[in-house]
Design goal:
This protein has helices at about 20-25, 65-70, 85-95, 135-140, and strands spanning about 5-10, 30-35, 40-45, 50-55, 75-80, 105, 110-115, 125-130. The chain has an 8-stranded mixed β-sheet with strand order 2-3-4-1-5-8-7-6. The chain contains 4 helices and 8 strands, in the order βαβββαβαβββα. A hairpin with a 5-residue loop joins strand 6 (about 105) and strand 7. It has a single domain, classed as 2,3-Dihydroxybiphenyl 1,2-Dioxygenase, domain 1 (Roll), CATH 3.10.180.10. The chain starts with a strand and ends in a 9-residue tail after the last helix. Helices cover about 20% and strands about 35% of the residues. The chain binds zinc ion. The site of zinc ion has 6 residues, from strand 1 and strand 5.
């Protein structure tokens, strides 16, 4: 397994207008997507090799809406990009870490994601993400995939 990389930091916001402060800093929204499984609308702003992911709840019963209700807007999770999400989930389970998703669910950008329980991350909600449609990111790892 390759070493995980910081994919993004997820920030819970009431509205994606929260992107304005980052735009004032020179960042740009590069991708907006509604993730039905998480009941959120997301906006990605790339910052070097990583991203900021703004999360606006689309339903009052979404996890992000409940987070904002309880703790206010702010940093919600960190996401590590991995190359074999199932292997990581199994290794974590075997070591007794509590998972929210025992199996990957669809995430933004066609990725497959899984969340660890915040108790496993000392209060930090950790998301694992395996990109499936970013062949350009994989090639730098020297993967065995044939180039197109
Ligand atoms: Zn995320």
């Amino acid at each position: 397994m390759n070493k995980p990389k910081l994919d993004h930091i997820g920030i819970a916001v009431r509205s994606l207008d929260a992107a304005k402060v980052y735009e004032a800093l020179g960042l740009k929204i590069e991708h907006v997507e509604t993730v039905e499984t998480q009941k959120v609308k997301t906006a990605f702003l790339s910052v070097g090799d990583s991203n900021l992911e703004l999360l606006e709840p689309t339903e009052p019963d979404s996890a992000v809406a409940k987070f904002i209700e309880k703790r206010g807007e702010g940093i919600h999770h960190i996401c590590l990009r991995v190359d074999n999400i199932e292997e990581h989930l199994e290794a974590l389970k075997a070591q007794g870490y509590r998972l929210i998703n025992e199996a990957p669910v669809p995430g933004a950008h066609g990725s497959r994601v899984a969340f660890l329980h915040p108790s496993a991350g000392n209060g930090v909600l950790i998301e694992l993400s395996e990109a499936i449609n970013h062949p350009e990111e994989r090639s730098e790892e020297g993967s065995a995939e044939p180039s197109r």
